[in-house]
Write a structure and sequence with these properties.
Blueprint: H1 2-25, H2 28-37, H3 43-59, H4 63-66, E1 77-80, E2 83-86, H5 88-100, E3 108-120, E4 123-133, E5 141-151, E6 154-164
Length: 166
């Protein structure tokens, strides 16, 4: 008699589980397609996209937009021309004086020879070349090393060491 009462009770418990499982099995291909397209970009791809956005901003004269790739902090460090700058404000001011002051121009920026190496889940180093093409045909350029850190808002440059080949 216990078995007769237990059978309908078990059927009530198992039916929703079996129905849910059947529904899941009916959609495996959709789930696979969705998960492939929803996969996050690699760190290198995210950093490359940030650098590409910086180049686009620079080449349209949008210095503040270019600076969005940098960590907006007094702890940002920028080394160039034998000078050490500390902070986002000092870094953008250097760019303004060097490239936007009267008689100055920003030129057209290009990055090349990029080497992006992830050092851990939240850190990466990027080495490469930069070159500006100026309106007079001159092409100043040089090398750079960037240290990136991943924040909740994404990857940001926390240290920039840029040298000139001039």
């Amino acid at each position: 008699m216990k078995h007769k009462l237990l059978s309908p009770f078990l059927a009530l418990l198992i039916a929703p589980i079996a129905t849910a499982r059947t529904a899941q099995e009916a959609q495996p291909k959709q789930t696979v397609k969705q998960s492939k397209s929803a996969q996050p970009k690699s760190a290198a791809a995210e950093i490359r996209a940030l650098l590409d956005a910086q180049v686009a901003a620079w080449n349209t004269g949008k210095l503040e937009e270019f600076m969005e790739g940098y960590w907006r902090s007094p702890e940002l460090s920028f080394f160039s021309g034998g000078r050490k700058l500390s902070g986002w404000d000092a870094t953008i001011e250097r760019y303004r004086k060097t490239y936007q002051a009267e008689g100055r121009e920003m030129g057209k920026l290009a990055f090349s020879d990029l080497d992006i190496q992830q050092l851990g889940p939240n850190a990466a180093v990027v080495r490469g070349r930069w070159e500006l093409t100026m309106s007079d045909g001159k092409k100043p350029g040089g090398l750079y090393t960037l240290i990136f850190r991943r924040f909740k808002a994404g990857w940001k440059i926390v240290h920039d060491h840029t040298s000139s080949n001039q």
